[in-house]
Design brief:
TIM Barrel, binds SN-glycerol-3-phosphate, 8-stranded parallel barrel, 12 helices, 276 residues, 8 strands, alpha/beta
Length: 276
Amino acid sequence: MKIFIDSADLQQIREAFSWGIVDGITTNPSLIKKAVEKLKASGEQVSMGDYIKLMLEAAQGTPVSLEVIGTTEKVMTAQGLWLHEHFNSVAGNVVVKIPVNPSLQRGDGLSYEGLKTIRTLAERDIPVNCTLVFSPEQALLAAKAGAAYVSPFAGRIDDMLRARAAYPGSKTDYFPADGVKGADGVMVHDNGLRSGVQLVSECVALFHMHDIDCQVLAASLRNPQQVRECAIAGADVATVPFEVIRDMIDHPKTVEGMIAFCKDIVPEYADLLPRG
Ligand code: G3P
C-alpha cells in the first residue's frame, strides 16, 4: 500500500519525505488554509503559486492532489485544466481533485457536475482524484467517469456513526471497524456501512470484483489502527496526516527494547563498529 501525506504544510511534507516512506501528497482547501495561516504567523512571504511549486518539487516525482474550488462542470473543468497547465510542468505530478458531488444543498441541480468534470478531465488524460466519497456506489460512479483515484473518507463516516451511537471518544480515537451498537441495541450504520474502514473495504471489493481500474485512496484517517485496517482491507493508498504517520512508528516496547540493547553493549563489540 502506498502512503501519501495528507498535508499542505511544506515543513511536514519535507520531513516525512526524508523518512523514505511517502509516495505522494494530498491537499484540500482546508489543508491549504492551515498551511497559509502557519506561513502568515511565521511572517514568511511567499506567493501561493510559488508555495505550490515548492510542494510539487518536495514530492520528488510522486503524485500531488490539488483540489478545485468550483461547483459547476464549467468552473471545475476550467480550474482543473488551469491547475494542470500551470503546475504540471514543475514536476509532472499534478493530480486534480474533484468532489464526487459538489451540491451545496439537495436539489440545487449540481449533483452530477463532479462526474461530468471527471469525464472531461480524464478524456484529456488529466489524472483525477475524486474526493468526498462516502459510499461504494459513489466510488463506482466516479471510477466509471474516469477517476484515477477515489477517496473514501473513513474518519468522517466514523464521526457520523460515533455521534449516532453516542460512542465515547474524540474524532482521533479509534472507532471499531465492525461498528458499534446504539442505545437501542441495534448496530448503527449509514447506508449499510458500519464504519469508515468498511466503506474503504467495500470500495476495494467492488473494484476487484468488477476489475475496475481505479485506485482506492483511503482518506480522512485519524489513527494508526485505522491505517492498518485500511491496508488489510486492500486500499491501494492511504493518505495520512503527519501526526498519524509519526504515531505509526511509536511503541513503548520498542523504546524499552532499545534501552535494554544499549545497556548490554560490550566494549569489544562497540570498538568493532564505526562511531559514525
Ligand atoms: O484526506 C482527506 C482529509 O484531509 C480529510 O480529513 O480528518 O478532515 O476528515 P479529515
